[in-house]
């Protein structure tokens, strides 16, 4: 029986690249029927990485009922595939907060406080005395550079940087040059609709009694984003209605300005107002030096929600 390895919905570079690299590691260790997969559309940044290192897109899965699966880069069921409650979860490799439901049996769980799941996967190659191929090293490097914004994110750890530099050597690329090219590919808004923008990297969270989604887009084209705001508002309201949410936040991270604009819409916008200082009659605020959803948005918003 095949085992599918995949990351979260609206997959980013780490969800795709860690799934591919971990499936490759499992195959090298003798589990030949392990298949990398994805839960959604490939974004521009990931497409750039896959094309650069000559790796095919992983297959897309929509329902994993009755399947054997390995989760990477997430452990919350709300961010995972349809049918996960009826799937056989074998392993979890992640770097996010622990929100694991009852698995019904002992499984391998490896969650570390690093900036990227691919950092953990790269360490697992080394622990098994294996050197990743140039293409696998390139994909894991891409994920680390993306997740840590070339080491600028507060989630970045010395381990991430050390592993990334080792992978860059194996992948035969200049880390800084490749990193800038990768992020440039991911920050282009050319041809994107509001739906595309909100689907690039959106995660759902249960915060106390509130159902919340937080999306993030990295860009240096603030003017284009401003012109898209009417379309963005309309699409956020569509998401709220479709997914039964009370709050949707869009982080518009601008590496040139050095921070993120936090746009909040929904009946429970007061949570974002209280947490991030958004004025009640406004829908957004710019926060300097805020780059990380995991470290600078979710914990603070969760604390507000739990105390409301």
Query: Rough shape?
Result: globular
**Counting H and I runs of at least 4 residues, what is the number of helices?**
11
What is the percentage of strand-forming residues?
15-25%
Low-confidence stretches: none
CA distance, first residue to last residue: 46 Å
CATH class of the largest domain: Alpha Beta
The rounded Rg comes to 19 Å
What is the CATH H-level superfamily of the largest domain?
inorganic pyrophosphatase (n-terminal core)
Oligomer: single chain
Tell how many strands the DSSP assignment holds: 11
Name of the CATH architecture of the largest domain: Alpha-Beta Complex
SSE arrangement, N to C: EHEHEEEEHHHHHEEHEEHEHH
**CATH fold topology of the largest domain:** inorganic pyrophosphatase (n-terminal core)
- Chain-averaged pLDDT: 94
How are the strands of the biggest sheet laid out side by side? Answer: 3-2-1-4-5-6
What is the helix fraction of residues, given as a range? 40-55%
Count of distinct structural domains: 2
Protein traits:
5-stranded mixed β-sheet, 11 strands, 11 helices, 308 residues, Diaminopimelate Epimerase, Chain A, domain 1, 6-stranded parallel β-sheet, alpha/beta, inorganic pyrophosphatase (n-terminal core), single chain, 2 domains
What does this structure look like?
The protein has helices spanning 13-28, 44-52, 117-127, 134-147, 158-171, 175-187, 194-199, 222-243, 269-276, 293-296, 298-306, and strands at 3-6, 34-38, 59-60, 68-72, 88-94, 108-111, 202-207, 210-218, 247-254, 259-265, 284-288. It folds into two domains: 3-185, inorganic pyrophosphatase (n-terminal core) (Alpha-Beta Complex), CATH 3.90.1640.10; 194-306, Diaminopimelate Epimerase, Chain A, domain 1 (Roll). The radius of gyration is 19 Å and the shape is globular. The strands form two sheets. A six-stranded parallel beta sheet has the order 3-2-1-4-5-6. The chain has a five-stranded mixed beta sheet with strand order 7-8-9-10-11, with helices on both faces. The protein is an alpha/beta fold and 308 residues long.
């Amino acid at each position: 029986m095949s085992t599918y390895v995949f990351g979260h919905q609206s997959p980013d570079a780490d969800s795709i690249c860690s799934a591919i690299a971990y499936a490759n590691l499992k195959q090298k260790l003798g589990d030949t029927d392990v298949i990398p997969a994805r839960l959604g559309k490939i974004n521009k940044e990931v497409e750039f990485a896959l094309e650069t290192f000559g790796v095919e897109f992983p297959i897309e899965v929509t329902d994993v009922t009755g399947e054997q699966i390995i989760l990477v880069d997430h452990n919350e069921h709300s961010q995972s595939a349809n049918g996960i409650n009826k799937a056989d979860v074998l392993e979890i490799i992640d770097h996010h907060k622990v929100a694991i439901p009852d698995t019904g049996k002992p499984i391998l769980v490896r969650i570390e406080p690093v900036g990227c799941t691919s950092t953990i996967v790269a360490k697992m190659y080394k622990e098994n005395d294996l050197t990743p191929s140039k293409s696998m090293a390139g994909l894991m490097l891409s994920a680390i550079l993306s997740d840590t914004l070339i080491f600028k994110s507060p989630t970045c750890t010395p381990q991430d940087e050390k592993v990334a530099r080792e992978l860059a050597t194996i992948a035969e690329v200049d880390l800084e040059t490749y990193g800038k090219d990768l992020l440039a590919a991911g920050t282009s808004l050319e041809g994107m609709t509001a739906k595309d923008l909100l689907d690039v990297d959106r995660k759902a969270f249960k915060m106390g009694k509130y159902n919340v989604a937080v999306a993030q887009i990295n860009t240096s084209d603030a003017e284009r984003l401003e012109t898209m705001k009417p379309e963005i508002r309309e699409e956020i309201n569509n998401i709220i209605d479709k997914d039964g949410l009370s709050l949707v936040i869009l982080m518009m991270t601008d590496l040139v300005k050095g921070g993120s604009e936090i746009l909040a819409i929904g009946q429970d916008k007061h949570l974002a107002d209280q947490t991030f200082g958004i004025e009640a009659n406004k829908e957004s605020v710019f926060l300097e030096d805020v780059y990380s959803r995991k470290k600078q948005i979710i914990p603070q918003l969760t604390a507000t929600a739990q105390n409301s």
